[in-house]
Amino acid sequence: HFREIVVEFGNENWNSLFRPAGIPNAQIHGPVAARAFQNIRQGAGPNAPLHFVVNGQAVNPKAALAVLDQTGTADGLAVAPYYLFTLEQQAAADPWRLLFADDSASLTAAAQGARQRGKALDIYEINAHTLAGNAEVAVRDQVVAGAASGAALANKLLQGIELGVARQCVYQFAQYDAWTQDKKLVILWGVVRDLGLHEVAHGVLHGAMVIGQQHGV
């Protein structure tokens, strides 16, 4: 009964964290993905509302589009345009310029490239990812987990809509913590702060269902 099911092949093939399961060479990755999509289509039947995508590195649209070019049966390209990677202590006193900085050049290039190919551009992950820089943990948390960061995320999502991106997934659902480059524990901005049986039963799931109905996901 889903109006659309997104099928993504690969998991950040350029990322060394996932190297054992990745195929970074576009000329090899593409045919393997195309074969997988063809098999899935045959198994699901012609009426299943499948949307096939391959993923690429957001900061390298040329390489990402090369994967799309090599995958003839893909409907689109998925990228993860994270932002605010670095926060220095001296800049933390006025972080709004960094949070709302226009860094859309790579995403714009990917969107234009996909559109020229008659394909969709999707965003499979997006949020602040502030693990670099020398800002202290307390200061960093105020910036990346504060209300302003939520507004910055909304601004990024609106930018995606303006570029014609119809499918956007925020990372991540809960506000998990992470390690900075100098091994300090910080929090990253999440969609929800606290999870419990009441929230899941009466709030979170209902909200997700409403969003899905509105956007056809």
Characterize this entry briefly:
With 217 residues, the protein is of the alpha/beta class. 40% of the residues lie in helices and 12% in strands. It has a four-stranded parallel β-sheet with strand order 1-2-3-4, covered by helices on one side. Strands 5-6 form a two-stranded antiparallel sheet.
If you had to describe this structure to a student in words, what would you say it looks like?
It is a single chain. By secondary structure, the protein is α/β, with parallel strands linked by helices. The chain is 40% helix and 12% strand. The strands form two sheets. It has a four-stranded parallel beta sheet, covered by helices on one side. Strand 2, helix 2 and strand 3 (76-79) form a beta-alpha-beta unit.
The main sheet orders its strands as 1-2-3-4
Ranges where pLDDT stays below 50 over 5 or more residues in a row are 202-217
Count of DSSP strands:
6
Provide the residue-averaged pLDDT. Answer: 86
| SSE string | EHEHEHHEHHEEH
Classify the helix fraction into a percent range.
40-55%
Q: Determine the strand fraction and express it as a percent band.
A: 5-15%
Biggest β-sheet description:
4 strands, parallel
